[in-house]
Amino acid sequence: MALGNVTSSPKILVFSTEKISDPAIDMAGLLKLHYPPTVYTLPVPCSSAIKPRWILHALEQGFDGVFIAADGTDCPYGESCTEKTGAIVSMTQQMMKEKGMDPARLKMAAICSVCSEPFVRHVKSFTEYLSKPSN
Amino acid sequence: MIMEETKKKILEYDALVVGGGIAGGESALNLANLGYQVLLVEKDLTIGGKMIMLSKVFPTLDCAACITTPKVSEIARHKNITILTGAEVKKINKLGEHRFEVDVLQKPRYVHVADCTGCQLCEDVCPVSVSDQYQYGMVGRKAAYIPFSIASPRAAAIDIENCTLCGACERACPTKCIDFTQTEEEYLVKARSVVVATGFNLFDPLKIPRYGYGRFKNIITSMQMERQLAPTRPFNTILRPGDGKLPDNIAYVLCTGSRDKSVGNPICSQVCCMYSIKQAQLLMGALPMADITIYYLHIRAFGKGFNEFYAQAQDMGVEFIKGKVGKISEKENGNLILRYEDIEAGVVKEAEHDMVVLSVGILPNQGIADVFENEKLELDPFNFVQQSDMLASPAKTSIDGVFVAGTASGPMDIPDSILSGGAASAETTSYLRRGTL
Amino acid sequence: MNKKIGVYICHCGGNISDYVDVEKVRQSVESEAGVLLSKTTLFACADSNQQEMVDDIKDQHLDGIVVASCSPKLHLLTFRAVAERAGLNKYNYVHANIREQGSWAHSDNKPGATEKAIKLVKSAIAKVRNAEALEPVKVESVKAVAVIGAGVAGMRAAIELAEAGSEVFLIEREFFVGGRVSQWDDLCITPETGKELVTRLYDEVMKHKHVTLFTGAELAEYSGSVGNFSLKVKVTPRHFKLQCDPGALKKAIEVCPVEVPDEFNFNITMRKAIYHNYPSEYPQLPAIDMKNCTRCGACEKVCDSIDLSQKEEIINLKVGSVLVATGFDPYEPKPGEFGYGEMDNVVTLPQFKRIVHYCVDKLTYKGKEIKNIAYIYCVGSRQVDGENKYCSRYCCTSNIHTAITVKKKYKNIHNFHFNRGIRTYGKAEVWYDESSRLGDIYLQSFEHDPPVVENRNGQTIVKIKDVLTADKELEVVADLVVLVTGMVPRKDNSIGSLLKIPRGRDKFFNEIHMKLRPVETVIDGVTIAGAGQGPKNIMESMNSALAAATKSFSLVASGALELEPTVAKVDTSACSWCGKCEEACPFSAIDRVGQNGNSIAHVNASVCKGCGMCLPVCPENALDLIGLSDVDMESMIDALIPNI
């Protein structure tokens, strides 16, 4: 079977969080809320643990976009999470600009443990954004 | 660990759990994890109870096997749990607090479980074909057989009643684990506590002749449909048994054998509405073109996420008709005519369907009360095990030291059975501690 | 080091193999570096396959295992246990989620799902190649459990925990125990009243020397983790000395000039600022409601037991587990919902139960005798427009039971049940039967067409298009309209937000898995019981309380716990101590220590939760999470990239 249409869709790496957003992404599957199969998820304990160098590595090696499914205020490790993840994103976007990359290739949104539909909406619209020829 | 080949001997355990379904299993595991020695006695050839037979479970549509098999596996290999399958509790006497004497009889399996690799070569060569009880009679099996692919233990057994003693299986077995010289084993179990988790029976729709089950080929029970939808299913698709056609207009008749004094069961079975709604949703996935109609009196979608699940089925296009089905008749082409009272319209109507599923209810599994000899295990008015302090200690029975888990005390769904299994193990723990302090 | 890796790809019945070509996945990964064997299996989690894996690991001397199956939330622990049984360190096992994030998520695109599965498996293989054997971090577990909420579920759990051998701190926000059940008279099924059940449980709680009850107490702060939580409990004084003369107390209540609506009676009566909810209530010592007290001092003059100088106390507790049994609130109808708040003969079911409690031989409300009662079901439940889509489970049975009680207690009662399909499940069916036999009238409509309550010429009329009589429009003149209100989560979710317990779509506390782990939350060490998790009747609450007690006890029973070794690690050669990691750590797990005359960071492994918040803030990149190093992460990312 031709896989052409599969691989031509933009590749997105999602960093999910083990206790909060990954369960929501699991539930999206359970509810058969479809999203492009070129969206790959790697879970980490907390979205504030993501190193900018991982994001840059992914983008430099061939991912079209990186989406951080952040813990937000539900973070089991503390309220500072939203702010800390935000800081990681802006720091990385700054580094991306310096490297001449479009900072919009990195996106973040808080995904709660039952936010399956918002997750699917986010990755779909991100896919659309990354599919535009100018990007 | 699986015990076998023990000479008649005395066994001593902290707890005897009668019944290896999901509730008994939960109790056994909790007790074993706290360090108690547990004997689990199961009359069937496999543990896992009815749940291991199911397809997916409401309201999350988790696959039942995916939940059951790891639990079953954890039970089977727990160092503090001994399992006797194919075994029945014959007598229980309470000699005093924390002193129960129990007679257990284990029927021969004619297979050394530890040596069986589950290769199925015996099945291939066995010349005898009989109806497969694990597929609820929809297909056949051999007299030398493995109950089903996710059974625990996954080992062969010889159905001696149907076996012709031809010896083909013995010759075919690469590990020589088939042994026709096995005999019944008797055990005297000294237990410090007892958990009754004997589960339920399904209503037999032959008791309602006007529905025509058994006479009309395209009427099946909900358990038969459950098997057709399960991962270990008999066919690789859904078909009507009469002619193997794919059905495209399926009817569900709820409350078959429940809420029906004429068959002696006045109570609601608590799960039929939801499992029927679940099957309807699964059928819409398996047979996208099929129409599904559910004839009901009241939809009991009461648990966490249930009402939402019911609404989802309505949105998917499952038709719900509030009406009692009075009679079913068969047409020449095998289709079925349902005569029913359409309550909303206030008239009696008829409708044609090409397959009918009877959503059969839950009945008590009564035998357990009879094995208690010197003290009486009280039953409730519906012949379920009586909960002697239902509100404060739901697992207590009329006998101190005997606790009840799961559907042995009344109809309940899987989450409730598991919680009830947890409650029984909690009460057993404190009873056992009172014996040591 | 070249690892020998075994890869197992699960069909999951058809759950995976219906959408993912599992054989193709196997073929695509069999020649990956290090892969010694690759198999597909019908059910990876089945006992027979687990045994096969154990045999493979032993026979082929595998030192790395990948299972591609369902979500790791279900079976990560299952397969780690398989590795351990085969003598392989469990951290040499890596899980690939090709069901929830593979076959199911992409059931509309089989080639896409297959390609994604191949890459996810390759990524897991990449991780297992770098995996190292790790030993768990052993910590002490305090043999004590805090139970939050002394309703029937909380009290029952406390008793069970104490019997099992744990120290128990039972923390109740109100001044009195018993929660909602103390507000009810006759309970269904048993002849006991709510107060009797509460009394029985309270007596048992007080009998146990290992249970300490705090009333007027709220959890104010919480820190630590499973096995070792530190709690700060704020205890509000009752302003009463322990001994109290009943005569003087009566006088004190009389002289109190403050009158406020009595919440215990759902505001249908008034009470003083000095109060108890009912005579003989537990603890048998009244309290002063300082929110409403004017501090006039009138009571102090007539009663020696009163002590307005008592101060709030903060109590520090150490526990190994927290069991949350904070219960529910009854739904409060919106103003005008079926006439509530606008017509003076419209009440809720909880209010109605209190009215029935106070009316001895004649049912009256606001001075008028009640004969015709219209019950409107599903108020606040199964909402079409509102947020509460769920069924509240207990109300049909509870209301029918109340209607029967009313009919038996008073003369000339006519009950009209405006329902949406009665849900007296299980054995409760007999109550529905009995009420029909007693002549109660049932009228039904569906969600989208609810009954209407209106005032016509001073009469209260309830109208319905009744599906039971072929959609005839029927009317009942009602003396009293009872809104059968459901259960909603506690309005005050302060405990939930403090402990970070996630909530479901229905806003009740969410368990990890309804069937596998029904009383545990994603917060390790925090369990949930009773109606805080979702609507339940008393028996169901008790079952969940006992199950939660068992789970909490199992965490503290042995006095020790093994924690995940996946904590942060400092590269001591790279660290030059700037303090940023210490600042970022929410658990104070990082200290500054000296090494060869220099300061560097040190991670306290038993305190570190492995969240990784310290990782990105380090300017020298000197911090890693064990098991999630840069090499791990980058090799996993690399495996996902190439086009197939």
Coarse structural class of chain A: alpha/beta
Q: Provide the succession of SSEs of chain A.
A: HEHEHEHEH
Mean pLDDT of chain C: 93
* Total helical segments of chain A: 5
CATH superfamily of chain A: Lumazine/riboflavin synthase
> What percent of residues of chain A adopt helix (DSSP H or I)?
40-55%
So, CATH architecture of the largest domain in chain C? 3-Layer(bba) Sandwich
So what's the overall shape of chain C?
globular
Q: What oligomeric state is this?
A: heterotrimer
Rg of chain C: 31 Å
Compact description:
Chain A is an alpha/beta fold and 135 residues long. In chain A, 44% of the residues lie in helices and 17% in strands. In chain A, helix 2 crosses helix 5.
Textual characterization of the structure:
Helix content of chain A is 44%, strand content 17%. Chain A has 5 helices and 4 strands; from the N terminus they run H-E-H-E-H-E-H-E-H. In chain A, helix 2 packs across helix 5 and helix 3 packs across helix 4. Chain B has 3 domains: 196 residues, 3-Layer(bba) Sandwich (FAD/NAD(P)-binding domain), CATH 3.50.50; 73 residues, Alpha-Beta Plaits (2-Layer Sandwich); 160 residues, FAD/NAD(P)-binding domain (3-Layer(bba) Sandwich), CATH 3.50.50. In chain B, 22% of the residues lie in helices and 27% in strands. The radius of gyration of chain B is 23 Å and the shape is globular. Chain C has 16 helices and 34 strands. In chain C, strands 8-7-6-16-29 form a 5-stranded parallel beta sheet. In chain C, strands 18-27-21-22-23 form a 5-stranded parallel beta sheet. Chain C is globular, with a radius of gyration of 31 Å. The mean pLDDT of chain C is 93. The chains are: A alpha/beta (135), B alpha/beta (437), C alpha/beta (644). At the A-C interface, helix 2, strand 2, helix 3 and helix 4 of A face helix 4, helix 5 and helix 16 of C.
Supply database-style keywords.
heterotrimer; B: 437 residues; alpha/beta; FAD/NAD(P)-binding domain; Alpha-Beta Plaits; 3 domains; 7-stranded mixed β-sheet; 5-stranded parallel β-sheet; 9 helices; globular; C: 644 residues; Rossmann fold; 5 domains; 16 helices; 34 strands; 28% helix
Give a topology summary.
The complex is a heterotrimer of chains A (135), B (437) and C (644).
Chain A: H1 4-8, E1 12-17, H2 21-30, E2 39-44, H3 52-61, E3 65-70, H4 81-98, E4 106-110, H5 116-131
Parallel strand pairs in A: 1-2, 1-3, 3-4
Chain B: E1 9-13, E2 15-18, H1 22-33, E3 38-41, E4 56-57, E5 62-63, H2 64-76, E6 81-84, E7 87-96, E8 99-106, H3 121-125, E9 129-131, E10 140-142, E11 144-145, E12 157-158, H4 168-172, E13 185-191, E14 194-196, E15 200-202, E16 219-221, H5 222-229, E17 249-256, H6 272-286, E18 291-296, H7 306-316, E19 319-330, E20 336-342, E21 347-353, E22 355-360, E23 362-364, H8 368-371, E24 402-404, H9 414-436
Parallel strand pairs in B: 1-13, 2-3, 2-14, 3-6, 14-24, 16-22, 17-18, 17-22, 18-19
Antiparallel strand pairs in B: 4-5, 7-8, 8-13, 9-10, 11-12, 15-23, 19-20, 20-21
Chain C: E1 5-10, H1 22-29, E2 35-41, H2 47-59, E3 64-69, H3 72-85, E4 93-97, H4 99-103, H5 110-130, E5 137-140, E6 144-148, H6 152-164, E7 167-171, H7 194-207, E8 211-214, E9 217-225, E10 228-235, H8 246-255, E11 259-261, E12 270-272, E13 274-275, E14 287-288, H9 298-302, E15 313-319, E16 321-324, E17 328-330, E18 346-348, H10 349-358, E19 364-365, E20 368-369, E21 372-379, H11 395-409, E22 414-419, H12 429-437, E23 441-444, E24 452-456, E25 459-466, E26 472-478, E27 480-485, E28 487-489, H13 494-499, E29 526-528, H14 538-556, E30 560-563, E31 568-570, H15 580-584, E32 590-595, E33 598-603, E34 623-625, H16 630-640
Parallel strand pairs in C: 1-2, 1-3, 3-4, 6-7, 6-16, 7-8, 16-29, 18-27, 21-22, 21-27, 22-23
Antiparallel strand pairs in C: 5-30, 9-10, 10-15, 11-12, 13-14, 17-28, 19-20, 24-25, 25-26, 31-34, 32-33
Helix pairs in contact in C: 1-5, 2-3, 5-16, 6-7, 6-14, 11-12
